[in-house]
Write a structure and sequence with these properties.
This protein has 69 residues and is mainly alpha-helical. It is built from 2 helices and no strands. The protein starts with 5 loop residues before the first helix and ends in a 7-residue tail after the last helix.
């Protein structure tokens, strides 16, 4: 498996969490028409985003963050 950097993990976590929010807004706008599909997908997206965020936090605390210029 490829080594994931802090930036990759942080952006992936943000992306998956944002996707979950977009799915929930789409569910709201559709009047809960696709609730059986959208809500479980949003939950899975939040779990994946949370896992990437935790990984980014661990990399940050370990000192693998990019150096400031």
């Amino acid at each position: 498996m490829k080594h994931l950097t802090f930036n990759v993990c942080a952006i992936a976590g943000l992306g998956f969490s944002g996707l979950a929010v977009l799915l929930l807004v789409a569910n709201l706008l559709s009047g809960n028409q696709f609730v059986d599909v959208i809500v479980p997908t949003a939950v899975v997206s939040l779990v994946i985003g949370g896992a990437f965020s935790v990984r980014a936090r661990l990399l940050s605390s370990r000192g693998d963050r990019p150096k400031k210029r």
